[in-house]
Specification:
The chain contains seven helices and four strands; from the N terminus they run ββαβαααααβα. The chain is globular. Helix 3 runs antiparallel to helix 4 and helix 5 packs antiparallel against helix 6. A two-stranded antiparallel sheet has the order 1-2.
Length: about 200
């Protein structure tokens, strides 16, 4: 890949395995962000390809990501658990339809609800509030007030909220481009410790 006639990457080969933790280090202008943009398909390389394993959930901290206007910080952080909330809604709907089904259909629904309920338990659905509180406090997000609208936040504050949401999502692969921007030393220490103990890549 080249930029303005200057070759930045040539014959680059890179592999990330499950659970590995890798740091990309280099001076400004060496192409670290360009490399991240190629990995995340924000930029097409002139040749070569990026191959991902199937069913891998990738989370990328991009400083330019937009937050949904009109939402509170809390609602934005809760989006990290969107899939779990959708499962809970589907369970509630099935409970409502049970009044009008046969015994056989009810048995099927109860079994299916049990499977989904177990999935919620395994993914700590009922601990979401405490997880949000932990990350918000650790990154200093709580200081803004969790019910504050994201439209009212500064660029640095928005970056912190994006980072918090991404950490709560706990993707299989976490890609962070300069995650310590806008963080105080105590927040950086917490993040460092969090990443050291991060189970995924």
């Amino acid at each position: 890949h080249s930029f303005a006639g200057r070759v930045i990457f040539e014959d680059v080969s890179f592999r990330l395995l499950k659970g590995e933790h890798v740091g990309l280090v280099g001076a400004n202008g060496e192409g670290k962000s360009t490399f991240m943009n190629i990995l995340t398909s924000h930029l097409e390389p002139e040749s070569g390809k990026v191959i991902w394993s199937k069913n891998v959930k990738v989370g990328y901290l991009d400083q330019h990501t937009k937050l949904e206007e009109g939402m509170s910080i809390l609602d934005t952080l809760k989006l990290a658990f969107k899939d779990l909330f959708e499962i809970e809604t589907s369970i509630q709907k099935d409970y409502e339809t049970m009044m009008d089904v046969s015994e056989e259909e009810m048995d099927y629904l109860l079994e299916d609800i049990g499977i989904r309920q177990e999935y919620l338990d395994q993914h700590d659905f009922y601990l979401i509030d405490s997880k949000i509180e932990e990350v918000s406090n650790a990154l200093g997000i709580s200081e803004y007030g969790l019910y504050k609208k994201v439209d009212e936040l500064s660029g640095g504050q928005r970056s912190k909220v994006l980072l918090g949401k991404l950490l709560l999502e706990k993707p299989d692969i976490l890609l962070l481009d300069e995650p310590t921007n806008y963080l105080d030393s105590e927040h950086i220490d917490w993040l460092k410790n969090y990443l050291l103990n991060y189970d995924n890549a």
